[in-house]
Amino acid sequence: MSEGQYEQAEAALGDEYTQLLSQYADVSEDGDGTSSAESFEQARTQQQTVSEELSEYQRTYQAYREAKAAGNETRTRALARELLALQNGLEENVSELNGTYTEIQTSTEVDVSTERDRLQSVSQNVSETSTEIRSAEFTSTQLSVRTEEPHGSFIEPIEITGALRTADGEPIESSTVAISVGEQTHSVQTTERGSFTLSYRPVTHPVDLETVTVAYEPSNASLYLGANDTINVSVSQTTATVQLQNVSDSAGFNDRVTVRGSVSVNGTPVGNLPLEVQLDEETLSTGTTMPNGSFVIDGRVDESPAVGAQPLTITSSQQNRSIAVSSANTTLDIVQYESTLTATTSPDGNESMLLSGRLSGPENRSLPEKTLTVQAHNETVTELSTGADGTYERSIALSRLPENASTLTVQYAATDSNLNSASATATVPHRMTASESGILTTLQQPLPVLVIVGTLLSLSGGGVYAYRQRRTTQSQTAESEQTTTSHEDDTTADQPTDADTDVALSSATAALDRGETDQAVVMAYTAIRAQIADHYSVPTQATHWQFYTAAVDKDLPVRAEFEELTTRYEQAQYAPEPVSTATAETTIETAANIADGLDPQTSNADTSRADGSVAELRTD
């Protein structure tokens, strides 16, 4: 932002920032971590706003300079006034962002003093530019107001007199100007001395507020700046009456309901009064009366009102104000419509499935934040909620399903609703054996990985880690033994084999050869995690550190090595910079050692080659 590169500044806070923030929140388990994650999210939102405002300020400033060079005084003043408004908003947002920076520095001990200094410098530049524009284009003014009788109400308006002059005391004479009193704006005519009078008929003034602000609101093309003053007042409450003229008879989900009417006090129309339309005690829509007291308010019915005649009320949401409203009541007949639910499934890795779909009402309108129940064989598997667009998606472990379950049923129970309940059925994907999943995992690798892995496995030296020679011999021996005993015991046919781990570690090596160090570490960790889960029956639905703790509780013999591997995995997965090549090589070596330590067939003698030399973990 300090270099004026606003698009790049906003892009830096995009998808990558969101992903890193999500990962940061995942690994920050204590209260301070959660708090700082929220601060980072707040800082992102605030900094995007500041960047957008700075960009808008620069564009407007350029247009201002062009209008001034062209001699267009009307446009020059209008753009100058817009620049002053932008500067006021920018100063407020910069102050809030600086406060968030302070929170981040306090909770994370990250030094953001340089960023704060640059931000303050940008804000100071804008302030100085605005000061120059204000001096060059406008004349400052002063406003003074008073009242002889400060007490009043809607039916007894308060008379206000005032005078409008320049900062040097010259009257702004014989001009039609806009004077606001509270939330009302009056058009008044000044005299030769700059004086004026107006009647303040309070509508939204709080009855316990004993002052009101009176302000001069210059037009965009005016050469004057605004000014304001404050007077003491005392306001009494008056009750207004709502008269209904037209209301819809019946409606259902997503149907538009229109309410027409007017508000008055003893025949005097009440303008600029906020109103609220309630359906079955819930807000349907809001609106404001016109200056003549009339209103037209419409809103769409959601799924919550129950079928049948429901009360419809027109009232005002404001409390303790100068106008109270005597509510008008009628009824609206709510009719029932159908809802639609879809469900599809697809494999999500080898041990889970992805369930997704959408819940919608008539005209394909989304139904957000609705609870859905997922069942298999009449047993509840899980519950989930629809998103803002009515869609849902959930990964479900196949182990959570009842045995032999072939379908899932997703149900929406439309309780206390004007929509019907809905359900959808989806087929459970084929549960693959370990042999099938191993083949699928290999086939799912990108083509270059398949070529590299195939080449590496066909080599006996060169660019292949020496441990693979050792592990291949062990795998061949195990395969021979398995062939001999296959008819005696087939209970392990679906279990992951050491050969699967070899293939995965070979894939990690291939990733390292391509320079993808983070991917290499993640693949090595994933291979060992799967082997540990198989050997020690450790649940797989856990974070990396939860899995480590569960494995240690199972008396894992290579706990120190696995702790190191888990640490390297966290670094590769979450750190902003990739791990070094040396770290990735060491990590794959650690993974290979863990694989040996988990193999019951492995002994110290197994580390010898056929030629009697000791196998070393190295690259070409």
Rg value = 36 Å
Which regions are unreliable across 5 or more consecutive residues at pLDDT < 50?
Answer: 432-496, 601-620
Please count the helical segments.
13
> Tell me about the biggest sheet?
5 strands, mixed
> So what's the overall shape?
flat
Oligomeric state of the chains in view: single chain
Strand content: 25-35%
Tell me about this structure.
The protein is of the alpha+beta class. It has helices at residues 6-11, 15-27, 31-69, 73-108, 113-137, 434-443, 447-458, 466-485, 498-513, 517-536, 544-553, 559-574, 581-598; strands at 141-146, 151-152, 158-166, 176-181, 184-189, 195-200, 211-217, 227-232, 234-235, 238-247, 250-251, 256-265, 268-269, 274-279, 282-288, 294-300, 308-315, 323-326, 328-334, 340-341, 344-347, 352-360, 371-376, 379-385, 391-397, 407-412, 422-427. The strands form 7 sheets. Strands 10, 12, 13, 16 and 18 form a 5-stranded mixed sheet that branches. A 5-stranded mixed sheet has the order 11-19-17-14-15, with no helix packed on it. The protein starts with 5 loop residues before the first helix and ends in a 22-residue tail after the last helix.
